[in-house]
Structures are given as structure tokens and as C-alpha cells.
Design brief:
heterodimer, A: alpha/beta, Rossmann fold, 13 helices, about 35% helix, B: alpha/beta, 5-stranded antiparallel beta sheet, 12 helices, globular, ABC_transp_ATP-bind (chain A), ATP hydrolysis activity (chain A), nucleotide-binding (chain A), AAA+_ATPase (chain A), ABC transporter ATP-binding protein (chain A)
């Protein structure tokens, strides 16, 4: 969609981000295990991976729902992880999140007006008397009729519910929105509508997105750059076009070759069929060396012993694999 | 041609609700030949699962009302079967893989016990011969590519991962010889790489043992990979049925076209606008074509009359007035 829009300054930088969850004595679930990435202003970074790879944990850690085990997050030039009392109010205004399941992230006892007015009050976006007008304006932004204000989340459909949670995220005029699988619980016809809406808003409001999904087809059409996660680590980051045309990491190739597609044209784009073997290992007992070696068809001696480091193979294209580094 | 193993004729299924009858399935025709793999594709709430559950005879008479239609399975009408015949049907005729492997297995019994129970009541084994039952269960688990079947037999469902559980469900569906396997979105809860494995497995097992398969799915991509023939369902009607390759080269019903254009492509090219509107209310469904309120080509006649299934090419039928009666196709950008 917008391939060349990567000129802005870096809005969010994560350096060596780690998030461990203790389970018993000296045992941890290593949900996120040393992740580096940066998102520039106006970019849509896609975060893909299987369930249990730590995508959502990254989102929650950035938002401050967990206290990170290690590493640093820099937002808009200032480190936000130094503050031990959670995130500052400015950050909470500038960064918002849309959750996967709108059914459980909207309070069923409140109507849409109450849901949307809370962020407006907290962040003093408009004077109290103008709140209703502002709500109508925001509902219009997501193309919902103004009388939606008085409906409860239970009485509306799944797609509309997700629109309400997008509206809620927009209330505080954010710069950055994390979209945590916003369409995976919806049907394709509604999904297309919501994705269009999100992309339109991104353009109009000059938003930056971190878009989490497991649908590679969606990712191709919305993101400007893609990071792929496996077992708490990012194994490949590349601009969208490169990512689909020249995937380097064996896991990326495996994932891309497994997608069911609907036209011969797409079939041709998929990398050569790599037989999928095994399942994602437990993040408690990580495999030695490269965490993907248990499923990798190209594994070699070194992969079982040494963990590869992230390396830039061409501008903007980072891969974490022993095999790609030799070149 | 080949013998029809399942033949659904003019079937309607209504749910009883407080607001009146909810007409979830409306006059559908569907058939499955022996050894054939068919796909039933549609969005959530279009009646796919309801139809298949009725085939299994698992929806009680207090829940549903069937005003018309027949379901012939191997020449017998499932709808008028006695309870004992229904049990026989489920024992040796049809099996179903459910959508969520998490809830399909009983959490308080081990996998081994559950598999052996199926064998015990299948009538194919001597229930006292524990050794034979165990061996058969063992073999079934091996056939679905589960390594270490002994450990799995001894474990409870919560000790297994989602992919393993779904494999166990497939194993239990295929453990006794059955003619028809219904897979109800077996992979929606799983990751693509696991999904790929399960699909391979399903295809191999079905082809190898000459079973028939009905694949219920909302993903056209999955249907394209797996099945021979596709039925597209919308709002309780089957709107288009054809061979898989025809559907992707010449989709004809406006809904099919819309659905195809909605799928985000790997090759890029932006997003489509989606299909305008929402699925119909089943208690008061539109009088004519149920897709009419959302259809870009809707005409006067669509509002009042139901379009008949018209054959537009061999094995390709469409329920749309654009193809029925006088040919008056209005040019559109397909």
C-alpha cells in the first residue's frame, strides 16, 4: 500500500526487551526473550507469529500492563521504562491499544456513550459540556451512526463492537495504536471493512500502528514492515515487499508456504513447499542454540549449539539465522 | 455416476426461539458421492454447522423444527430414524470432528480410555479383549502422526497442545471405519503451520481409506486446497455449487464474488471494500433472495421471489436471477 513511507523519525524503540513470567522456583516462561525493534512515525509494523510466540506479550509490555524483566522502551525520544510507577499520563494518552475480542474488552454494563466518555474525561480532551458532541464526531470517524451512543455492546454485532473499541482508542487523539489481532474474530466481509477503516484513519490522523496478526494475507495489505516472531524472539524483520518476495529465514518460508491461498497468482508467490514438522516448543524449556532448530529442515551442527545473532543482510532486512549469515 | 452416500433434498431447519421460528436453513439441496471431498463454505451463522448437526441427528426435537426435506444417508432417511438406528448411524456411518478440540474431549478421562470406549461400543471388537483395544487405539494415534502414542494414551487432554488434541479428535473420528467424515472447521483454533499438517493428514487418511469428507470452513483458501466440490452457503441458502477449480475461475453468484474479493491477497493489491450490510435476521428473513439487501445487482424480482438453482455449466449451479430465466446480465466489474 504505502511502501515508501518510512522517512519519519523513530517513534517507538525497544532494546533488548525481555518479559519473563515466574513459575515456581527459578523457572520462567520466557514469553519475550530479547527483542529489538523500532517503529518510525507513520509506519505500520506488522508482528506475526504463531500463538504462544509472544506477540501479545510485547504489546502488553509496551503498554505497561506488565513490568518488563529487562530492556528498554523509548517512546517519542524518552525512555518510558525508567518510571517505576507505570506509564506516564502522556504516554497513556499518546499510545492506545485495541484488543482482539471486543466482546470482552467492552464493559457490557455500560453503553457506548459511557465507554467513550471515560477516556475523554481522563485526558481532558474536550470540556465536559462538549463531550457528547465529541463522541458523535468520533463515532462518525468510524462510520457509525450517532444514535449508537445509547446502545450497549451486547446489542450490537461483532464488527460494530470492534468499531466501538477502535473509537475508544481514538478518543485521546493518540499518535500510536497497538492493534492486537483486531479482525481475527470477524468474518472476511466485515474484516475487509474494518481494515479499510483502520487504514483510512491511519492516513487521516497520521497514526502509527503496531499491527499484530497471524493472517499473512492481511499483513501483506496493511503493513509497511513486518517482524516475525518465534518463541519470544524476532527471527526476521523486513519491509513488506521484501518480506514476501525474498523471505530468508526458514521459519518465514515455512509459514508462507503453509498459507492456503485462493489464486494461482498467489500460489506462485509462495516459497517452495517446506514440510511443516512438529510444534512450537514450550517457552519454559527453550531448545539450545537457535530456538527454531527443532523444526528447521535445514538445521546444521552449529544451530543446536549457538544462538544466531540478528544481522542486517540488506538495508532494513534483518535475519537471525546461521545459514543466512554465511553469505 | 458414483453412488450418493449422502443426499439432502429440500431441507429446511428452523430453531425454536422466543421470538418465533428462526429459519436458519432454508430449502437446501446437497449431495456427497462415495469417496468425494466436498466443502461447505460460508460465514459464521449461515447454517453450515446446523445442517451437519442435523445430519448427525444430534439436535433434539425440542430445539429444532423441520418443516420439509429429507436427509438420505445410504438410502435411509435420517430424520425419521429410530433412536437405535441413529446410534448405529453414529457408530458406523458418520463421524464429526468438532471445531474446538479443547471442548470435544472429556477432561476427566485419559485419551486412551476415551479412544478405547469408542472401540468398545463400535461392535467391531470384543469389549473384553483389552489388549486388542489397546493395540487399535495405539495404531490410530500412530496413523495421525503422533509420536510417542504410549505417553498420549496415558495423558489427559489438558496435558496436550491444541494441535495434538485435534489430532486425537481426528484419530477418534477415524478409528472405526466410517463412510462419511464431517470436519467442522477443524483448524480455526490452530496456527497455520499446524493447520497445514492437519489438512495433509485429513486428505491422506480420507483418500487412502476411500471415505467421503465434508469440510465445513469459512476460508475459501482451505476449501481450495482440500476439496473437490464446493457449496457456498449464505443466510441458510446454498447460493452456488460447483467444482473447486470453477469456483475460483468463474465465480457467478454476487455473494461468491464478494467473498472472493474480500480475502486479502498475498500478492498485495490493497483491500476490497467488503460486502455492504449484515447477515439477515432469521426470524424475519427477506421474502425473496436472502442476499438481496446486500446485493449490488439486486432487481425488483429479487425482493419478492426466491431465485431457483439454475445450472449455468455442467456441475455448476447458481441461485440467482441474473442467471435464471431470460439472460439479462448487467455488466459489472465482476
Amino acid at each position: 500500500m504505502s511502501e515508501q513511507k518510512t522517512q519519519g523519525k523513530e517513534l517507538l524503540i525497544a532494546k533488548g526487551l525481555k518479559q519473563y513470567f515466574p513459575i515456581g522456583k527459578d523457572r520462567f516462561v520466557r514469553a519475550v526473550d530479547g527483542v529489538d525493534f523500532s517503529i518510525r512515525e507513520g509506519e505500520v509494523m506488522g508482528l506475526v507469529g504463531e500463538s504462544g510466540s509472544g506477540k501479545s506479550t510485547i504489546a502488553y509490555t509496551v503498554m505497561g500492563m506488565y513490568r518488563q524483566t529487562d530492556g528498554e522502551i523509548i517512546f517519542n525520544g524518552t525512555s518510558i521504562t525508567k518510571n517505576t510507577k507505570g506509564r506516564s499520563k502522556e504516554f497513556r494518552r499518546d499510545a492506545q491499544i485495541v484488543f482482539q475480542d471486543p466482546g470482552s474488552s467492552l464493559n457490557p454494563y455500560q453503553d457506548v456513550r459511557q465507554i467513550l466518555s471515560l477516556p475523554l474525561k481522563v485526558h481532558n480532551v474536550v470540556p465536559k459540556s462538549d463531550i457528547d458532541d465529541k463522541i458523535r464526531e468520533i463515532l462518525q470517524m468510524v462510520e457509525l451512526p450517532p444514535d449508537f451512543m445509547y446502545k450497549s455492546p451486547n446489542s450490537i454485532g461483532g464488527g460494530e463492537r470492534q468499531l466501538v473499541s477502535i473509537a475508544r482508542a481514538l478518543c485521546s487523539n493518540p499518535k500510536f495504536i497497538i492493534l492486537d489481532e483486531p479482525t481475527s474474530s470477524l468474518d472476511v466481509s466485515i474484516q475487509a471493512k474494518i481494515l479499510n477503516m483502520l487504514m483510512k484513519l491511519q492516513e487521516e490522523q497520521k497514526l502509527t500502528y503496531m499491527f499484530i496478526t497471524h493472517d499473512m494475507g492481511v499483513m501483506r495489505n496493511v503493513s509497511t514492515k513486518i517482524a516475525i516472531m518465534y518463541l519470544g524472539k524476532i527471527c526476521e524483520i523486513a519491509p513488506t515487499k521484501t518480506f514476501y518476495e525474498k523471505p530468508l529465514h526458514p521459519y518465514t518460508q515455512m509459514l508462507l508456504s503453509a498459507i492456503p491461498v485462493i489464486s494461482a497468482e498467489e500460489e506462485a508467490l509462495k516459497p517452495k513447499k517446506i514440510k511443516c514438522e512438529g510444534e512450537i516448543p514450550s517457552p519454559v524449556n527453550l531448545p539450545s542454540g537457535c530456538s527454531f532448530h527443532t523444526r528447521c529442515p535445514f538445521r546444521q551442527e552449529i544451530c543446536t549449539k549457538e544462538d544466531p545473532v540478528m544481522q542486517e543482510v540488506e538495508p532494513g532486512h534483518f535475519v537471525r539465522c546461521h545459514l543466512c549469515q554465511k553469505k | 455416476m458414483a453412488e450418493k452416500i449422502l443426499n439432502i433434498e429440500d431441507l429446511s431447519i428452523w430453531y425454536r426461539t422466543y421470538r418465533g421460528y428462526s429459519q436458519v436453513v432454508d430449502h437446501i439441496h446437497l449431495h456427497v458421492d462415495k469417496g468425494e471431498k466436498i466443502g461447505l463454505v460460508g460465514e459464521s451463522g449461515c447454517g453450515k454447522t446446523t445442517t451437519m448437526k442435523t445430519v448427525m441427528g444430534v439436535l433434539g426435537k425440542d430445539l429444532i423444527h423441520i418443516p420439509n426435506g429429507t436427509i438420505d444417508f445410504r438410502g435411509k432417511n435420517v430424520l425419521t430414524m429410530k433412536q437405535s438406528d441413529l446410534l448405529e448411524l453414529r457408530r458406523s456411518g458418520v463421524s464429526m470432528i468438532s471445531q474446538s478440540p479443547m471442548s470435544a474431549l472429556n477432561p476427566v478421562f485419559t485419551i486412551g480410555q476415551q479412544l478405547m470406549d469408542i472401540l468398545k461400543y463400535s461392535g467391531k471388537y470384543n469389549p473384553r479383549d483389552k489388549e486388542a483395544l489397546k493395540n487399535a487405539a495405539h495404531e490410530a494415534l500412530t496413523s495421525v502422526m503422533l509420536s510417542d502414542p504410549d505417553r498420549i494414551m496415558a495423558s489427559y487432554p489438558h496435558q496436550l497442545s491444541g494441535g495434538m488434541r485435534q489430532r486425537v479428535c481426528i484419530a477418534s473420528a477415524l478409528i472405526t471405519p466410517k463412510d462419511l467424515l464431517i470436519a467442522d472447521e477443524p483448524c480455526t483454533a490452530l496456527d497455520v503451520t499446524i493447520q497445514d499438517q492437519i489438512h495433509h493428514l485429513l486428505r491422506e487418511l480420507v483418500e487412502e481409506k476411500k471415505r467421503s469428507l465434508i469440510m465445513i470452513t469459512h476460508s475459501l483458501g482451505v476449501a481450495r486446497e482440500l476439496v473437490d466440490r464446493i457449496y457456498i452457503m449464505y443466510g441458510g441458502n446454498i447460493v452456488e455449487s460447483c467444482r473447486t477449480e470453477d469456483l475460483f475461475t468463474s465465480p457467478s453468484h454476487p455473494y461468491t464474488q464478494g467473498l472472493l474479493s474480500c480475502v486479502p491477497r498475498l500478492s498485495g493489491g490493497g483491500l476490497s471494500a467488503g460486502i455492504y450490510g449484515y447477515v439477515p435476521d432469521y426470524v424475519n428473513p427477506p421474502k425473496g433472495c436472502r442476499f438481496c439487501p446486500r446485493c449490488p445487482y439486486a432487481k425488483k424480482i429479487c425482493e419478492t421471489e426466491k431465485p431457483p438453482m439454475t445450472e449455468i455449466a455442467p456441475d455448476h449451479t447458481v441461485a440467482c436471477f441474473r442467471f435464471g430465466g431470460e439472460e439479462q446480465e448487467k455488466g459489472g466489474e465482476a
